[in-house]
Design the sequence.
């Protein structure tokens, strides 16, 4: 299901995707505690973020928000 979600992220509204990334940013403390424990978890997280960047249009607000989040 997670793979399908990220594969289809470009079909969701810019507003929805932007808010999804905002939620991730708000939960960053928990995310960091998980990805710092395992290289596999870290790789998986950033793979999904990369998939989002590849699927989203560069002119969308969600693209910019995802890029800033990854940075």
Sequence:
């Amino acid at each position: 299901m997670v793979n399908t979600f990220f594969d289809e992220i470009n079909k969701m509204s810019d507003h929805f995707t932007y808010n999804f990334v905002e939620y991730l940013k708000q939960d960053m403390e928990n995310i960091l505690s998980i990805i710092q424990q395992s290289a596999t978890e870290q790789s998986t997280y950033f793979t999904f973020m990369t998939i989002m960047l590849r699927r989203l249009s560069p002119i969308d607000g969600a693209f910019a928000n995802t890029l800033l989040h990854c940075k």
Summary: Residues 2-70 form one domain. The chain has one domain: 2-70. The longest helix spans residues 39-55.
